[in-house]
Recover the amino acids of this structure.
């Protein structure tokens, strides 16, 4: 022990979180229809690295699948996927050139006879928090999955 109460050889307390709790370097993947499988694989890998359990990894994969497929179908055919984690959350962000005109999209049930329109609803149900920013020519959807505290 030193006079400060630290043991000799202990790393200095810099106030920074341990390596396992620091934010992961964000990963970026531009995608189109041909890259949807790669986008899902990237999310699965990052979610597992972030410590999500198997069920939550599958939830993150399904959310990313819905968001990227929506970008291809409704957002101009391409988009950009970003994924990272910090000490408390896995974060998935998808941006594209689309515009969501309905401010309640994904927040209310779809009529049973409607074909489609359930992707954003599913995203809201599976993720812990969903944030949508949209304007003509650009939409960014960011979803958060709470990491298990280690």
């Amino acid at each position: 022990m030193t006079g400060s109460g630290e043991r000799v050889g202990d790393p200095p307390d810099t106030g920074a979180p341990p390596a396992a709790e620091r934010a992961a370097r964000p990963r970026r993947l531009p995608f189109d229809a041909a890259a949807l499988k790669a986008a899902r694989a990237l999310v699965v890998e990052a979610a597992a690295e972030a410590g999500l359990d198997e069920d939550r990894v599958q939830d993150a994969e399904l959310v990313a699948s819905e968001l990227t497929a929506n970008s291809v179908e409704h957002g101009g055919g391409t988009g950009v996927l970003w994924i990272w984690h910090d000490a408390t959350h896995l974060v998935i962000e998808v941006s594209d050139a689309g515009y969501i005109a309905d401010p309640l999209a994904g927040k209310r049930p779809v009529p049973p006879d409607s074909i489609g329109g359930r992707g954003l609803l599913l995203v809201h149900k599976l993720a812990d928090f969903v944030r949508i920013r949209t304007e003509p020519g650009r939409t960014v959807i960011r979803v958060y999955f709470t990491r298990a505290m280690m």
In short: The chain has a mean pLDDT of 87. The first strand starts at residue 27 and ends at 31. Strands lie at 27-31, 79-85, 89-96, 129-135, 138-146.
